[in-house]
Every structure is written in structure tokens, then in C-alpha cells.
Amino acid sequence: MSSESTTIPGSIEPGPQHLAAFARGAVDLIDEKQLAKVLAKGRPLRVKFGMDPSSPDLHIGHAVVLLKLRDLQRLGHQIVIIVGDATAMVGDPSGRNKLRPVLTRAQVEENLLTYVDQVGRVLDMERTEVRRNSEWFDRFGFADLLELSGRMTVARMLERDTFETRMKAGEPIGIHEFLYPLLQGWDSVEIQADVEFGGTDQLFNLLAGRQFQEQQGQMPQICITTPLINGSDGRKMSKSYGNAIGITATANDMFGGVMSFPDDAMPMLFQHLTRLPDDEVAALLAGHPRDAKQALAQAVTAQFHGDEAAGEAREAFVRQFAKKELPDDIPEIPFPASAGAEGLPLTVLLRELALVTSSSEARRAIEQGGVRIDGEPCTDPRAVIAPPSEVLLLQVGKRRFARVLPRG
């Protein structure tokens, strides 16, 4: 196996702002002395961040690193996004306590369609290097894979908290899962990364890259981890848990989603998802929690939708919840023409109106008291809604509404 040499033209103006930007909010920084020494040379650093297209959308948890990358890009450093179209087919075992299904290349390609566009909502893509790791792994032969596998021992692999926990619990571990940190580590060799970012669950993989680079005679990359953002339910933010706020969410949904976080999460969210000055954040946190959270939600929403849309989302939220007013933009939808005279089950109607994504989600919302008809809660998942003779107001949760119009 070999890697091509990559150099970065230009220079940067040395100064403490560079080290501060790299270190801001970091959980692990291995190691800071090396980073300071490299920065003192006054050259732009190659900063790697890998994303596997294992699902179609990014959420604001990914923005923790993306916002740091934007800070570094503005300081003149070269951001290198590794799109893991090869490693996504293996599946990252980090944070998983179950055997992860292997994705097909077709599934990966489908998910990949939206990734670059979503990253472009944060980074300047004209100045961002995007590389697919299939570029080198599709060239890998059997001998290459054996050579790469020989760089890591089973004993060290089992030191990973994820694998150790799963073994103790009797959960299966696929041999292919051992390959993932090796492949991610080799990405760093191929692009000659100076720095790699990842969540705290990625530290083992980042250190593998550092080890492989040193074996290849390259400068070992600096490894920086950032904390994982939990959803409003306290679990790691994930689309599969239904607790994620998508980067592509509307301004109103993003604002409302941030408002659902617990109060004690605000200091962390201010630090990692906004760039408000420290003294302003301190003043907000010292005041009323409601005002602080609204300022947080507005700042986060502004990152993706701009100041004007974020301000409008805040005003809409206050009207709807603080003043108990209905939103101004409730869609008006005719009762489905496909329904018979007897009507439709409520679970089906909610799905047909796109207030939920599935009948099972509708059932859960109904059973949990999250569905209202003309302002009154409906908790019977077997309820059938007849075609209305006048406008019917349906509500799911706090932010999803529809006015159902009579036929004809």
C-alpha cells in the first residue's frame, strides 16, 4: 500500500487564535504541544473529518464539528471531508451495542446525494476538499487487506469500550466490525492529515490513524474529539431514536426542537452550537431560563437559516406557546378523497396528512396524549374520523397542525 504526497500552498499568520480555535470545546486533544509546534511553522493544516453516509440526513449533532471546521477554514486551514462510501458498507461500531447491518453500495449512494449539500450549509465548499474513501479502498487487494489487518492486535481492538461491553453482555460482534477503525485510520495516511476531528466515541479510530501515519513515516496526526449532543430525551442524538433535529429542518421546527432541550443542557449547547461571546452567554444563563433558551434556539437557528428567519421563528414560537396562539401558517388540506363515507382511522388520516411519517408513529402519539382534535386530546388509537362537515383542526405534538377541509 502507498499514499500520495499532498502539500498545501500558502501560509497562515501565526497567532493564539489558531490554537484557541482548535482547542475550543475539545474533550481530547492529543497532543496540544505538538499542535502548537506545528502551528508555529505558519502553514495551513490539513484538517480531516469523516462522515459515513449511513443515513440520508445530518443533524445538529454533526454541526458541533462542522462549526469548528468553519472557524478553522476562515483562519486559512484546509478542510478535508472524507465521505466514507466504502467504510459505510462496513458500518461504524462506535456507540453500538448490536451487530450493525451492512449497507449496500446502492444504499450508500442514495444517502450520499444529500450529504455534500448539507455540509455546504456550514462550510464554503469551494474551499473544501471532498474525498471518497472508495478512491483508494476500491483498489485494495487481498494482500493489502491482510497487511492492514496485521497493524492491529485483537487484544488492542478489544480494549474498545464498545466491544468490551458487548462481549460482557453476550452480544455478537462481527469480524467485519474490526475492520472499521483500520479503514478509518488508513484514510488519514492517504490524505496525509495533520489533524482529525471526531466525536468522543471516535477516539480509538482517530488514534489508529495516528499510529498508521507514524508507521508510514508521516507526522502522526493530532487527534481532537468533541462531545456528543444528546436529544431532548437524554439519549445520543440519532435519526433512529427519533430525537434528532435535522440540519435541513425548517426554521420553526429547528427553533422548537432546541426549546425542547432540558435547561441543564444549555451551557454545553451554547458553547458547541453557537458562537455568541462568552460574556453574553454568561449573562443569559444568569437570567431567566426561558429567555436564555429562546436566545439559544435563535442563535442555533440563525446558523442554518440566517438572522431574519431565526427572529421570525422566535416570534412564531412566542405567539404559539407563550401567548397560546395558533401559528399563522397552518396548512389547509381537503379530507382525503380516497376515504369512504365512514371516514378513515385516525392513524391513517394523520399519515395521509403528513403529520406523521407512519401509522406506528401516529399510534404512539395518540397513546401518549400528543394528538388533539379541535383542541381536545384524543387517546384512542382505534378512533375513526368521519368526513367533516366543517373545518377540523388536527394537532400532533406542539408544532404540527393541519386544518382539514370538508369535501366539495
UniProtKB/TrEMBL annotation:
Task: Kindly list the places in or outside the cell where this protein is found, as annotated in its UniProt entry.
Answer: Cytoplasm
- One GO term of the cellular component aspect? cytosol
Residue intervals of the RNA-binding S4 domain: 344-406
The similarity comment for this entry is: Belongs to the class-I aminoacyl-tRNA synthetase family. TyrS type 2 subfamily.
GO MF terms here are: ATP binding; RNA binding; tyrosine-tRNA ligase activity
* The protein's assembly and partners: Homodimer.
Write the protein's name.
Tyrosine--tRNA ligase
Q: Which GO terms describe its biological process?
A: tyrosyl-tRNA aminoacylation
Swiss-Prot/TrEMBL keywords:
Aminoacyl-tRNA synthetase, ATP-binding, Cytoplasm, Ligase, Nucleotide-binding, Protein biosynthesis, RNA-binding
Matching InterPro entries: aa-tRNA-synth_I_CS, aa-tRNA-synth_Ic, Rossmann-like_a/b/a_fold, S4_RNA-bd, S4_RNA-bd_sf, Tyr-tRNA-ligase, Tyr-tRNA-ligase_bac-type, Tyr-tRNA-ligase_bac_2
| Task performed by this protein | Catalyzes the attachment of tyrosine to tRNA(Tyr) in a two-step reaction: tyrosine is first activated by ATP to form Tyr-AMP and then transferred to the acceptor end of tRNA(Tyr).
Residues spanned by motif 'HIGH' region:
53-62
Motif span ('KMSKS' region)?
A: 236-240
The EC number on file is: 6.1.1.1
Residues holding ATP = 239
What CDD domains does UniProt report for this protein, alphabetically?
A: S4, TyrRS_core
Stored SUPFAM superfamilies:
Alpha-L RNA-binding motif, Nucleotidylyl transferase
Q: Which organism is it from?
A: Rohdeia mirabilis
Aminoacyl-tRNA synthetase as a keyword of this entry, yes or no, is yes
Q: Which reaction does it catalyse?
A: tRNA(Tyr) + L-tyrosine + ATP = L-tyrosyl-tRNA(Tyr) + AMP + diphosphate + H(+)
One short Pfam family name for this protein?
A: tRNA-synt_1b
